[in-house]
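For the sake of clarity, the format in which proteins appear in this thesis is described at this point. The record quoted next illustrates the convention:

___
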Amino acid sequence: MIKLQFNIEGKNYLHPFVHLMGIYIISSFFALTINIPSVVFGFDIAWREGVYLIVFGIVGIIVMFTIETAFIYFTVKPLTAALTNFSGQRNERTKSALIRTMNLPIISAFRVAFIHSSTFIVPFLILTHWGIKAGYIDAERLPTQKLIFMSSVMYAGCTAHILLEYFLVQIRFLPYFELFAKDAQTSHLYELKTKILNTPIFAQIIVVFVLLLFIPVSCLLIGFYFKSANQFSVFNIADKFSGVMLPVIRWGTAYSITSIVITISFAFLFSKGMQKKVKIILDGLKSVEQGEFGKEIKMYSSDEFRDISLGYNRMTDGLLEKEFIKDTFGKYVPVEVRDKILKGHLELGGEERYATVLFCDIRDFTSFSERHEPHEAVKRLNEYFTEMVKAITKNGGVVDKFIGDAIMAVFGIPLEMEDHEQKAVEAAVEMRLSLARLNEMWKKIG
């Protein structure tokens, strides 16, 4: 007994097998409605032959439905296993289900192209050939040309089935992807990249144009040729066929081939343009991944890609500003303190804490400033502050403020520190040692 729905985290998910079977049945009926007019108006057979063809068609549908049901069941098995034992945490089941969900649209398209059409048309043609041999169907009323025409029409309808099921699976199985990828980190998704069937925009556009135009037109041309040849041969006017219809067929064939070439050429140019825009964005994202936030992308476009590029540039400007603040801030406080402050993990209303405060300044700095040029005093002050801040941050302290030549530092805030008194003393000792080294250097300079 198949469970129709799974309730996970308060949200209902239809059983993947039921869901995909529903999409498969809807797409099949859609393709059937496309084929029916061509088959009905394309044949002039007696009702008895028609009944036999319907019976043979039903047998073909049963064979096709049985094989595809089994294939669909095993295709969605990883999804079913993950939903049945869903724990909310990333494991091998959810990993396997995520891979299968992302590959499902292309797997469904290949299934329709190679299994769906073959498992129906092959049994149907075999039974029809047997019916002709057994005398149930008049060979003159249903010659080989008509069978080829019928197969061509069926394959033309199959292209519509491929596209409809591909895009329906992409849309309808998105909630499953969001569920399985919920706790997956970006690094995990990168790990799965090699296991996911890549379908670039360029390839998708070309395939859509080919399926919508090239295959149907080719199949209909083949069918039209055999249909016309058969009609003229029935009335024994082969000369008229060659004299009247052959030029029409040649013109139609040439016109169709020209249309196909032009359409595929435009599809190629359109897809290449799309691919180039996507590549520009991907190159920009790779720069961000490598820490290059200052690289802007320029998009010569009037569509949504322009808005994406503008949003990307605004994002990198924000990241660049944040990185600048992060680097600057990191010069005055320890890395741990900096990250805590930037992440907003502080009580803005204030809190009572037991901490140690350290003050220090330069003796006789006022008289020193009076005897030296301003730029020299500032240079010495910067050298002094640099060494003092290093000693403070090395011992877990935070520079609270600079007051002229004085420094105020705190230990035990904002990060809790059990031995903050000891750390403050160690920082003071290291500051004295650094100052001694500075004095030796300044004496040599003069």
Q: What stands out?
A: Residues 238-289 form the longest helix (52 residues). The chain is about 70% helix and 5% strand.
